[in-house]
Amino acid sequence: MFELVVAGVILLAVGYWATMFAMGRRDDVLHGDFVQDEPEVESVLSMPSLPPTRQAAQPDRDSLQALLTAIKRDLKDVAQI
């Protein structure tokens, strides 16, 4: 039983080592002491502004009336089926 506990601790240590190595914390892995991260530098540049978008063309009354007529005709055809 004691051997299983020792093997489990060793496997846990190897897993921790592999995880730290894969994450790029090689200093932690090689030397065993935690390295203090450098403070992140705030980006001076802000997000670039998007170019102004132009408004979509407004449909005229005749095209809207034609669309409404077509929809009514389609609904009438579906209701008859």
Describe the SSE topology.
Blueprint: H1 2-22, H2 26-31, H3 61-80
**Unreliable parts:** none
Overall SS class: mainly alpha
Helix content estimate = 55-70%
The largest sheet, given as strand count, sense and whether it forms a barrel, is: none
Query: In percent terms, what proportion of residues is strand?
Result: under 5%
Oligomer: single chain
Using the alpha-carbon principal axes, give the shape: elongated
Mean pLDDT: 80
The total count of helices amounts to 3
Question: How would you briefly describe this protein structure?
Answer:
It contains three helices and no strands. By secondary structure, it is an all-alpha fold.
Characterize the structure shown.
- By secondary structure, this protein is mostly helical.
- The protein has a domain at 1-34.
- The chain is built from 3 helices and no strands.
- The longest helix has 21 residues, at 2-22.
- The protein is elongated.
- The mean pLDDT is 80.
Search tags:
81 residues, mainly alpha, 58% helix, elongated
